[in-house]
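Batch manifest, entry 17 of 40.
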Amino acid sequence: MRAFSCFTLAILSLVAGCTENPFGGDDTIESGNSSIRGSIVLSDRGPAEGIHVWLDGFDIKSRTDAKGEFTVTIPPPSGQDTPGGATGVFTLYGFLANYSLFTATVATRNGYFLYGTKDISTDGSLAFPGFMIERFSMNIDVSPNVLYASVLADSGGVVDVTVTLTGKQTGVRVYFPTLVDNTQGPLFFHNLTTGEVFILESAVAQNTGGETMTLGVTPATRIMKAAIGKHILTPGTYEIRPYLRALRPDVPRELIRSLGARATSLHADYMNYPLKFTGGRLTVQP
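Output type: structure tokens
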């Protein structure tokens, strides 16, 4: 009789760890899973690092690593807005401003992910790699690309920044203003060592497009001349990029908000706006 009771308890424990499949069928699905993982690849096969991954309904975000891989973890049911944990079907997004939007469908029950449903495999990974198609390319040429801190401290310097945009799909539009918050031709200088961000003005020397551009196969070019004052840039490697936003009506507003309150403003937090480009490097030597 004692052996029968232990066997019964074991069966009850197993059943308690499962739930009915919300998509129909006779399968039962294990619950208690708080994380899902996946990877994203780009159509040009370039590095897929820094893609913004966001789960609607939970407002949980992550970023892909150097391999294009990510993990999304939701809080325990007690920490969710819905009493007892959320139950429903939600969309997982991958966002890179100049690439197509990636989406996957996930499900939760009582605050936990349901593995083996929709786009999630039984081991909690995406059933397929995310694939994002390039909408436009951006190349940033910096000349000179090496400066010396001793010279800058004495007399400052000038850097020419040439931004080239090329459409890869039809109907691609970007907002590339020449004046933002009374700042002429703003350029971000991001020190990749210290994390400091400086916003410098520039004079637009050449501009083959307007402030709102529809990009095509013929490149649109803007040359910007930035005057660097004394003692502004310390030795290090800088990433230089202009203020530019892709006009994307297909992207949920909540996703853009998840980047940060000032990620689309003329602020250091603009570095959180995910945009892939080539070039844009300046080295300041001692």
